[in-house]
Specification:
- With 435 residues, this protein is an alpha/beta fold.
- It has 2 domains: 192 residues, Rossmann fold, CATH 3.40.50.720; 183 residues, Dihydrodipicolinate Reductase, domain 2, CATH 3.30.360.10.
- It is built from 14 helices and 16 strands.
- The strands form 2 sheets. It has a 10-stranded mixed sheet. It has a 6-stranded parallel sheet with strand order 3-2-1-4-5-6, sandwiched between helices.
- Helix 6 links the parallel strand 4 and strand 5.
- The longest helix is centred in the last third of the chain and has 20 residues.
- It is globular.
Length: 435
């Protein structure tokens, strides 16, 4: 293995060394004082969560939107019109490099499909911009390592959009787990059962919609004819661009499994599942999956299922810490403790009281102003660590093997698993080298 490739494959070793910072709650968990210095924001990828992130950030005093970028002119013009109605007139771009060259942009939000995150984030670091990037951070282990290296090299503020890290009830639940009151925790379950996710009917290839720069949208992904199933929101169900529910929701719930257990790198990973609900539809990623991560004295288990909401404990998403004295169940709505017989007192449901997205974007802007990277609630090291952890689950599924990470050799012990460490780049694009 050559030297440059080894740098990218050393992700878990590098991140394990910083996981104390990644998994711990920052000192400035509360929103704190907000300075009034102007922060000029450019949005790359104006559909879906990128748009939601921008609108949240614009609530922070002193934040202005000065630029928008999207490869779909229909989306770009729609968002520009919406902002114009609010008295905001950003410059419009079709290529992210053009936006990054704009001297009136201090901060960028990256809300593009996963396969573009790495290139755009590294370019933004080189351009001297601070970055709020949607999750999952990267579409491969190698990409995550390249992004961590770029943020460090160029000393940029990077917040990953794992906004539960800014919600008070998530912190309160983790504090309870750390108190030891649950007794010995032997199993942590994390899951996403998504009843809204129905079958994707097979559709024929055809021309890209007018106004869409499809070549640009593909970027480093393999050249394919345009298909509506692979575009906009549905991209997440195809390996070229994303990792399905394992990375889409796993980075949220598994993140708290690791924080609660103060865990870093698993000893082994195995997964089983498939397209059991919709075997003949257009999606590639599994609609049903169970993944087991082995640690020294406990197991973390991931489950997901499309098309049904009947998840564990009657919740369609969440994380459960199963201890000898009781089980703590946590999700975006709140948390509770279910006692094991009379071994401890129940804790009634503690309802969420705040907006995680708004607190998360405020935390980011505060750190852009203060330059105190240790105050970020979801720094790039944390985003990389959980993205890699989720990618390991997908790699175990795709190889059909029980896989092991060799920290000394900085790779898996399986040749098949190692072939999936880096996403294959096409169309003249190259994985950024940060040596």
């Amino acid at each position: 293995m050559n030297t440059s490739r080894r740098k990218f494959l050393g992700t878990m070793t590098t991140l394990a060394a910083t996981v104390g910072a990644a998994s711990a709650w920052p000192r400035a968990f509360a929103m704190g004082d907000t300075l009034q210095d102007t922060v000029r924001v450019g949005l790359i990828g104006a559909n879906g969560m990128g748009w939601a992130d921008l609108n949240s950030m614009l609530k922070v005093p002193g934040v202005q939107c000065t630029a928008l970028c999207d490869v779909d002119a229909n989306v770009l013009n729609k968002r520009a019109a919406e902002l114009k109605g609010r008295g905001i007139a950003p410059r419009l771009y079709g290529k992210h490099e053009e936006l990054l060259a704009d001297p009136n942009v201090d901060v960028v939000i990256i809300g593009t499909p996963d396969h573009w995150h790495c290139l755009q984030l590294v370019d933004a670091c080189k351009a001297g911009k601070d970055i709020y990037v949607e999750k999952p951070l990267g579409n491969s282990i190698a990409e995550c390592q390249a992004m961590v290296a770029a943020a460090s090299k160029y000393n940029r503020v990077v917040q990953v959009g794992q906004w539960q890290r800014s919600q008070q009830h998530f912190k309160d639940a983790v504090d309870f787990v750390h108190s030891g009151k649950l007794g010995k925790i032997r199993l942590v379950k994390a899951w996403a059962y998504q009843g809204w996710m129905k079958s994707i009917p097979v559709k024929p290839d055809g021309p890209a919609p007018e106004g869409v720069d499809y070549t640009r949208w593909l970027g480093p992904a393999e050249q394919r004819p345009f298909n509506p199933n692979r575009f906009h929101f549905e991209f997440r169900w195809f390996w070229d661009y994303a990792g399905g529910l394992m990375t889409d929701w796993g980075v949220h719930m598994l993140d708290f499994a690791l924080i609660g257990m103060k865990a870093t790198t698993p000893k082994s990973i195995m997964a089983t599942g498939g397209k059991f609900a919709y075997p003949d539809d257009a999606a590639e990623t599994p609609d049903t999956l169970t993944t087991a991560y082995e640690f020294d004295d406990f197991t973390v288990q991931w489950e997901h299922a499309n098309g049904i909401d009947g998840g564990p404990y009657g919740r369609n998403h969440g994380v459960a810490f199963i201890g000898n004295s009781g089980t703590l169940v946590l999700n975006r709505s709140g948390w509770e403790v279910i006692p094991e017989g009379d071994r401890m007192e129940a804790v009634p449901f503690q309802k969420s009281q705040d907006s995680g997205v708004d607190k998360h974007t405020t935390n980011f802007v505060d750190v852009v102003r203060s330059r105190k990277l240790e105050d970020l609630n979801a720094p790039i090291t944390a985003g990389a660590h959980i993205a890699i952890f989720s990618q390991m689950g997908n790699i175990a599924y795709r190889t059909g093997e029980k896989i092991y990470w060799d920290a000394k050799k900085e790779r898996f012990t399986s040749k098949a698993a190692n072939r999936l460490l880096a996403a294959e780049y096409h169309n003249g694009y190259r994985l950024p080298a940060m040596g």
